[in-house]
Amino acid sequence: MPTVLIIGPYRFFFYASDREEPFHVHVEREDKTAKFWLKPIRLQYNAGFSRVEITRLQKIVTERQAYLIEAWNAYFTH
Question: What is the pTM of this model?
Answer without folding.
Answer: 0.94
